[in-house]
Amino acid sequence: MAAAEAPEKKWYFGNCHCAAVKFKVHMPSLDEHQVKTCNCSICSRNGYMHVYPARADVVYLKGEDSVKGYYFGGKKAEHKFCPNCGSSISVDPHGAFGEEDMVSINVRMLQDVELDQLKVGTVDGKTFGAPYDPK
């Protein structure tokens, strides 16, 4: 039996709303690749649509040093956002979920992507830690 071929990758360019942060991502085509929504408290509030490229396949072109991070709950994953416009750019789990080499990019930050044409699956992020309690 032949080994499955890795899907061909293409470059996607992305930015936050104010364009203070710009990046590119090398990953399989979103025409074929499923994106994920998550029901955890922060992903649902920020409208994340996740793809999970290798860390080496995410290249910041501008503003990486200005990106701010936010941890909550068990403080496992760092949610990264633009400090100027507040756009939710990515999530870096820092290996907390067994994927040391992976980051999550918010597909909503990518240019020329038709969101209503994407194949969408779900992640049950509510099960990753204690229930959200804003008190």
What is the gist of this entry?
This protein is mainly β.
Describe the structure.
The protein is mostly beta strands and 135 residues long. It is built from one helix and ten strands; from the N terminus they run E-E-E-H-E-E-E-E-E-E-E. It has one helix spanning 41-46; strands at 9-15, 22-28, 35-38, 50-51, 58-62, 68-70, 78-81, 88-92, 104-106, 120-123. A five-stranded antiparallel sheet has the order 4-9-8-7-6, with no helix packed on it. Strand 6 (68-70) and strand 7 (78-81) form a beta hairpin. The longest helix is centred in the N-terminal third of the chain and has 6 residues, at 41-46. The protein is globular, with a radius of gyration of 15 Å. 26% of the residues are buried.
Q: What class, by secondary structure content?
A: mainly beta
Please count the helical segments: 1
Q: Please tell me the overall pLDDT.
A: 90
Order of strands across the main sheet: 4-9-8-7-6
Estimate percent helicity: under 10%
What's the assembly state of these chains?
Answer: single chain
Observed structural traits:
single chain; 135 residues; 5-stranded antiparallel beta sheet; 1 helix; globular
